[in-house]
Amino acid sequence: MSVVFASIGMSLDGYIAGPNAGPGNALGDGGHRIHQWALDLDGVEEDQGREDADEHVVREIRLRAGAYVMGRWMFDEGGAGRPDPPPFRAPAFVLTHHAREPWTRRRGAPFTFVTGGVTTAVEQARAAAREKDVQVVGGATTVQQCLEAGVLDELQIHLAPVLLGSGVRLFDRITAGGRRFDTTRVIGSRGVTHLRYRVSGA
């Protein structure tokens, strides 16, 4: 069965976006610093014939995702709002309160709008992903809903050595206290530490 995983950047003080995050400023003030390590990637870097660790992580995530689950804000900012080539090249399922017909952008995969909640969206994404995994791409509320519903199997946090002071926290307002996070991998580089957890528990 497909693994449902989230992959998200975070500052050392626990923020995934800076203050004043909103439409047109999705990462908030200074939030781009969380992802500077990824922005600095310039193709595959070689070190004695081996792929750079950060590039390896990015490539791995891209190749394993066979479908996506996202919130409406993420769709507006990262799906419909991005120029070609589209960032999502597999079917995406968008959580929304307002039903609408599926939308497909040029050279892209379809976006299906799901009004039945996060469990329904994940079920549809699993079917679309087939043998591949399902990536929850955010935002914070969508990842929180997946944790609360018990449908998130794996959480990847890319911990950047920056402090934002305020903004959007990943674990605000979450009540899934019974969840267990088992560390399955730690990869460090100069600009980020990649943490991977298996999520289990009731």
Please outline what is shown here.
This protein has 202 residues and is of the alpha/beta class.
Structural features, described:
The chain is an alpha/beta fold and 202 residues long. Helices cover 23% and strands 32% of the residues. The protein is built from five helices and 13 strands. It has helices at residues 36-39, 53-64, 72-79, 118-129, 140-149; strands at 4-11, 15-17, 46-47, 50-51, 65-71, 92-95, 103-104, 110-114, 133-138, 154-160, 168-169, 180-188, 193-200. The strands form three sheets. Strands 7-8-6-5-9-1-10-13-12 form a nine-stranded mixed beta sheet, sandwiched between helices. Strands 2-11 form a two-stranded antiparallel ribbon. It has a two-stranded antiparallel sheet with strand order 3-4. A hairpin with a 4-residue loop joins strand 12 (180-188) and strand 13 (193-200). The protein starts with a strand and ends with a strand.
Features:
single chain, 202 residues, alpha/beta, nine-stranded mixed beta sheet, two-stranded antiparallel ribbon, 5 helices, 32% strand, globular
Total count of helical runs of at least 4 residues: 5
Q: What's the assembly state of these chains?
A: single chain
Helix proportion range: 10-25%
C-alpha Rg (nearest Å): 16 Å
Q: Beta-strand level of the residues, as a percent range?
A: 25-35%
Largest sheet: 9 strands, mixed
Q: Give the neighbour order of strands across the main sheet.
A: 7-8-6-5-9-1-10-13-12
